[in-house]
Input
Amino acid sequence: MSEMNESDTLSGLTLVQVRDSIRAHLTEGNAGHHAIGRLYNHTVSNRLAEKNGYTSAQQFFSQNFKELAQSTLSRYGAVARQFTEEACKAYGVAKLASLSTYAKAADLALAAGDVGAMPVDVPQEGGTVVSKPFAECNLEELLSAVKHKRKPSRPSMPPPDAARVDFMRESFSRHFAQGARVQLKTSVQGGKTLLTIQGVPMDDMERLVEALMDGLQPKLVRSVS
Output
């Protein structure tokens, strides 16, 4: 999606004109939010506040627009850079900002035209995922989709391995005193369950061997039978 070319229409505005324009846009809803974002970007990129005696653009905006938090201005600016005024009117800043975050998390490119048809993977109750067009998603669904994309999927342990690990843990608890720092950790990589044993003192190596042998007994019994 092409970045908005702010210099074409905003290059001649002074800081006072920026302030007055933002005031006029405050009551215009989504379209006004897009315009405020463009004016914010213009002020920051051209250092208008610093050129007029302010230490920063943040100081200028905080003194003149107490109703606009810095996070809100930054969001308006980000949306104005990535999306058109028409998109902002149709979907609103919050949904477009969430779509931008989703696209980054999913490693997707934003559509050059209307983003309404862009597919979003929305997680459902029970763990299933449904693909929906962005235009049909509400804000809650978009935030859930972002969270789902950011959360790395953790491979599950096969049930037989889980049962063996539980038996192994019981064996360790029997052979090592309560409060010992011995830890049995598990992970799944390439479809295989891996065990990591930590914190075993050298003096307890024989105890470790006994715990491992006892923990392997169920499999040994099944193999013999």
